Amino acid sequence: MLVGTLFFSVMSVFAKLASQRLPTMELVLARVLVTLVMSWWVIRRLGIYPWGNNKKLLLLRGFAGFMGLSCYFYAIAHLPLADATVIQFCNPMLAALIAVFALKEQLRMLDVIATICSRFSTSSGRGPKRSIISAAKASTSALSTSPAMRR
């Protein structure tokens, strides 16, 4: 998990640097093409049928993924990198909350506490002034979502 976080952080830094010269959608296209090649190789190697059982849901998931990736790269290009990263780390918190209503999932007490801490730390860390306190709050937000990701 730490290696994955490192790779996503490096990707974010490179995307921030590239966004100074390239439009957001070109960055999204490059990321999608790399992901497509890697996914296609794994799918072919495992002998999995790539179009799934429900094409409508697959297309809907693909569109949602495209929109999420587009918004993420737009945020990286137009916001300070720390703010874009904090927003990205809110995804597990939002996914857990949506799962309660959409999938009727039960949250454990640890999930509820982590979600409350995450929400508090992301909302209290905003503002034009950057400091060590703001960085600590952003780190707390990222760490407090990790129990929800362990499922």
Which helices and strands, and how do they pair?
Elements (H helix, E strand, L loop, with lengths): L1 H17 L5 H23 L8 H24 L2 H9 L1 H12 L6 H16 L7 H13 L1 H4 L2
Helix fraction bin: over 70%
Oligomeric state as shown: single chain
* Beta-strand share of residues: under 5%
Secondary-structure element string: HHHHHHHH
What is the overall shape? globular
Q: How many beta strands in the DSSP annotation? A: 0
Biggest beta-sheet profile:
none
pLDDT averaged residue by residue: 81
Q: How large, in whole angstroms, is the Cα Rg?
A: 17 Å
Calculate the terminal CA-CA distance, rounded to whole Å. Answer: 13 Å
Characterize the structure shown.
The protein is an all-alpha fold and 151 residues long. The chain has two domains: 1-78; 81-151. Helices cover 78% and strands 0% of the residues. It has eight helices and no strands. It has helices at 2-18, 24-46, 55-78, 81-89, 91-102, 109-124, 132-144, 146-149. α6 (109-124) packs antiparallel against α7. The two termini are 13 Å apart. The model is unreliable at 131-151 (pLDDT under 50).
